[in-house]
């Protein structure tokens, strides 16, 4: 999986109380999405911008891919119940300029439900499920689930790991 050189910038936010606008840009050795290289094992340029407040977020993110670009748009709600932090959202994956085959639309969307909690001072564990009723290229319904964890060393360094599986109907 590709290593990344990333530089992030926080921009002073305006809007609802505690709102924040952030941006990011990075160059990676490969863009791997759910175990599949979308850049033919080559480098990718990526970046995005997000707006968030205490419970809501909206943003966009893009990457070069082997035959053009991917532009994602997403929004969600992040409530907290007791020790559990939730992320309920929607993500659209868009491929401007892609030449869709008949009955095989490349653009698609997913619904997301995720939960996580701190289990120790520096350890967070979580799970997520994503569902698309009409996945990339007209391959039918798709479900992706994931178990994940983060170990935070300090404010500047953390380690993350995830294990997941994607099931696609492929009619």
Task: Characterise the protein shown here.
- This protein has 171 residues and is mainly β.
- Helix content is 0%, strand content 65%.
- The chain has no helices and 13 strands.
- The protein has strands spanning 4-11, 20-28, 32-33, 36-37, 44-52, 56-65, 68-77, 80-81, 84-94, 108-120, 123-132, 142-154, 157-168.
- The strands form two sheets. Strands 1, 2, 5, 6, 7, 8, 9, 10, 11, 12 and 13 form an eleven-stranded antiparallel sheet that branches. The chain has a two-stranded antiparallel ribbon with strand order 3-4.
- The protein is globular and about 50 Å long.
- The two termini are 30 Å apart.
- Residues 1-15 have low confidence and may be disordered.
């Amino acid at each position: 999986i590709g290593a990344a050189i990333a530089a992030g910038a926080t921009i002073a936010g305006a809007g609802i109380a505690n709102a924040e606008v952030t941006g990011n840009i990075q160059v990676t050795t490969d863009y791997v999405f759910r175990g599949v290289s979308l850049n033919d094992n080559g480098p990718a340029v990526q970046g995005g911008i997000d707006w968030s407040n205490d419970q809501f977020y909206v943003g966009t993110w893009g990457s070069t891919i082997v035959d053009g670009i991917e532009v994602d748009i997403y929004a969600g709600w992040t409530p907290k119940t007791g020790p559990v932090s939730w992320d309920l959202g929607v993500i659209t994956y868009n491929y401007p300029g892609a030449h869709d085959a008949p009955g095989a639309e490349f653009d698609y969307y997913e619904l997301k439900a995720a939960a996580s909690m701190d289990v120790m001072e520096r350890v967070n564990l979580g799970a997520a499920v994503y569902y698309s009723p009409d996945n990339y290229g007209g391959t039918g319904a798709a479900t992706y689930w994931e178990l994940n964890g983060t170990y935070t060393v300090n404010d500047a360094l953390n380690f993350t790991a995830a294990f997941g599986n994607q099931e696609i109907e492929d009619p």
